[in-house]
Design a protein that fits this description.
Number of domains: 1
Number of helices: 10
CATH topology: T-fold
CATH superfamily: ApbE-like domains
């Protein structure tokens, strides 16, 4: 496996009870630092952005405009998105924006670093399971006959899962390496060497977008704030009174608002992934089918974990590591986290045991 420390190139760069991480804190209110929030829906999740400066409320509107722009670029389901055009190109090169090229490059990097455990071309397999749709059907209709793809169907789809079939070309027609610096002034094209392949950037998109939102907000003079994109929380600075934000980690399969642990952090990213986010349960056996898939079998990952929370500087890195550590399982996931500088983790096992790296950083509630 390659060294994760090479990813420094990329790193530079709703708070609702249903989210996998809950923003629990409140701020001392006064004229200058009254918190102002805006909530909306984007990237198939609830988005809430908060700033602790009443005079900067216009920044919130600009942030949601950015979210709309990114959704038009990265969505695999919107027919006007660049990702849609790539997936329906029949294998022909497609001109893309700097932003799409950057996110695909980051995705390819993490696919390579994970030896294919993460793979942006897994969309056909994930789509065959219809986890989100079946989750809704099972919850609304106890007699619903859920669908489990057979092995032969999955094998056919897995034949087209290979991140190495995704190539980014610069304006000279040269393939871009995973760690090459991209330029906003240059033009890029993306090609699927397998015309039956399709990409989905959802496993990194929210992290990438959160990082970009934070950069923008800081450039607009925001010194304290919280960005919440579903399971991704990105903190700007510290609270106006100089104290840390308190973040609650959702208890897997718990009631809305029920937490299993809390962390106190400033100016960092907190990202959670787990089998409890999107799933449906087999009535007879109780087995859970969720949205994190084994790229070798095409079936949901089965191991000793319910969820993983990663705390680090970059929300994109947190997205990648939380999913990858979940796939690896407790032992290998802990080894990976312990090999990385500036990364902390909370692992929740199937027995609801909370296991932390650098446990002194956490206030455990179990």
């Amino acid at each position: 496996m390659h060294s994760f420390k090479k990813f420094c190139f990329f790193i530079k760069i709703f708070i609702l009870t249903a989210c996998s991480i809950l923003f629990l804190d409140s701020c001392t209110k006064n004229t200058d630092y009254t918190p102002v929030s805006k909530t909306g829906f984007a990237f198939d999740t609830v988005v809430t952005i908060t700033v602790y400066d009443k005079e900067k409320s216009a920044v919130l509107d600009a942030c949601f405009d950015m979210c709309e722009t990114y959704e038009k670029l990265f969505s695999a389901t919107r027919e006007d998105s660049e990702v849609w055009k790539i997936n329906h190109s029949g294998g022909a090169p497609v001109a893309v924006s700097f932003e799409t090229a950057s996110l695909i490059q980051a995705a390819l990097f993490w696919c390579s670093q994970s030896d294919g455990a993460l793979d942006l071309t897994l969309l056909p397999v994930a789509g065959e399971w219809h986890v989100k749709e079946q989750m809704t059907q099972v919850s609304e209709n106890p007699d619903y006959e859920y669908y489990i793809p057979d092995a032969s169907t999955l094998d056919e789809l897995l034949a087209h899962v290979n991140y190495k079939n995704v190539v980014i070309y610069d304006e000279k027609g040269t393939a871009v390496a995973y760690d090459d610096a991209l330029s906003k002034e240059a033009s890029y094209r993306v090609q699927l060497l397998d015309s039956n392949a399709a990409i989905d950037l959802g496993f990194l998109a929210k992290g990438y977008i959160a990082d970009r939102l934070k950069e923008f907000m800081i450039s607009e003079g925001i010194e304290s704030g919280v960005i919440s994109l579903g399971g991704n929380i990105l903190l700007i600075g510290e609270k106006p009174d100089g104290s840390a934000y308190q973040i609650g980690i959702q208890k897997p399969f718990g009631n809305a608002g029920e937490i299993i642990d809390t962390v106190k952090e400033t100016d960092t990213s907190v990202v959670s992934s787990g089998c409890y986010e999107r799933y449906f349960r087999e009535p007879e056996s109780g087995r859970i089918y969720h949205h994190i898939f084994d790229t070798h079998t095409g079936t949901p990952v089965q191991n000793n974990l319910l969820g993983v929370t990663i705390i680090c500087d970059s929300s994109l890195q947190g997205d990648a590591l939380s999913t990858y550590c979940y796939i690896l399982g407790l032992e290998e996931g802990m080894k990976l986290v312990q090999s990385l500088d500036g990364v902390q983790a909370v692992f929740v096992t199937k027995d609801y045991e909370v296991i932390c790296r650098t446990p002194h950083a956490f206030s455990q509630n179990h």
